[in-house]
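Journal club side-thread
Mid-discussion, someone asked how the predicted structure for our own chain would compare to the paper's figures. Pasting it here so we can look after the session.
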Amino acid sequence: MWAKERAALVAVARGDAVADCVVRGGLLLNVYTGECYPASVAIKGERIAYVGARDDMVGPRTEVIDATGRTLVPGYIEPHAHPWNLGTPAVLARHVLPLGTTTLFADNLLIYWLAGVTGFERTVAALARGPVKFYWMVRPHGQSRTLDEGARFPVRALARMLDNPWAAAVGEVTRWTDLVAGRLELFERLALGHARGKRIEGHTAGASAERVAVLAAAGLTSDHEPITAQEALDRARQGIALMLRQSSLRPDLRGLLAPFVKAGALGRIMLTTDGSTPAFVAEHGFVDGLVRIAMEEGVPPIEAYRMVTLNPATYYGKDADLGGIAPGRFADILLLEDLTEPRPRAVIARGRLLARDGRLLARVPEPPWREIFTPRVTRFDRPWRLTPEDFALPPGPLPAMRLVSTVITALEERPFAPGDLHAALVDRRGAWITVTALAGFATEVDGLAATLSTDYQIVAVGRSREALARAVNRVVALKGGIVLVDGERVAFELRLPVGGLMSTRPLPELAAKERELKALLAARGYVFHDPIFTLYFMVADFLPAVRLSSRGVWDVKRGRVLAPSRALRTAP
């Protein structure tokens, strides 16, 4: 296959065969040399055959794209995506392809956690046939310590996924404290990636400069978690590649860029949207928005475009295929008005014109989700109901959670107090519940339930046990989604039928629903900026200070259960 493809490219480059498509009349931004000059681009199949002044490979059936007055830049690369935030990866791809993103390096946790190796492989194969390229990060562990985690992440499964040609990295590794402690089991999992030439993606939130040095020695090759310029410098100084973030949770990019712009040390930096919500993407764009911010902050245009093209391609060892407009590379080409406007007028991906003036011209098929996420896989395979009594709290002091920012909590050991909400994590099959008090989320929420948690159970918060039961029972009936209850009335509902976490509705529709939920919660006292991530990370035991888990209320710093979960007696 490779030999025949290359022979066909050579024939076009020599002028002995006609191209399938020729883009001519434009200026080409060469990310390898930093030049911008007139050039034609000839395409055969999905790859570039020739870049230069000739156009003698045009034949009667060659599609000719007139790029007069346009600047050609490589398709944008998102190096660290979580492409399942309310919408499916295909939903995201449909929205971001017209914005210029042609490749994503994506987190596999949701798909693997629920559907296993086979489900992951089916998803990868289905998306590989689409116009947007998805490469994958393979998680070595979950984001919450569960009782069955060892069975969920066996070494043989990780090895099999890393052998997939679309797998590019191990990560992200959120348990950096295990690496600092020298726990051999995690090193052995990371070694699976190292042995296969894969990158090891870090998540080092909260690590001091001294700890970062240890983590570099442990083998982490990148990090996307700096939230201050100093933290970014600490990681860069240890040779860790930076993915500077502008996301719905952490819109930090402007401040993070400052020391690197000042020093002119921009050579390895990449930019990421991380796991931004639909409303954020709809308002700010995707990778195109990152380029715009970088240039506004003083990054020279050539460096801004390298940050989202050649730099991530080189980091992942994919620069023979991605990241530039040159022979042999995939024909992912954007036609811009000029370099000051990163949102393209036209998008060529896999050798075909697939978007023009913000309108998608191609079909992005969904994977066979109903076969991948069966009721048994999603754990919505039997009916059950909660009662208000299931949310009862024991008398006396509790390990109460206080939300001090969008995702950070503090531990308060005290009795249930006026203004507190109940906070619960409920097994999708109704087998167990973890419940405690929550302060700082809001004061006027009767009942809110969602299948948005990083261990894919049901998170519920509210001041009324009756409304909590009603919200959870409605989410179970929907087989996944978000439900807000006022008294006996459902005030908001979003069904997420794909795995209980995703929808196939267009991203703008999901963005509108997200904005509606934010407004409703703000009216009920929510003061932070991203309730979606508050719900997601209520179980994320790599963040301070106290979390809900299947084991019970978890003290992150001391690594212990403060109050155990309890069995439920749910009935069909």
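Post-session note: The longest helix spans residues 109-128.
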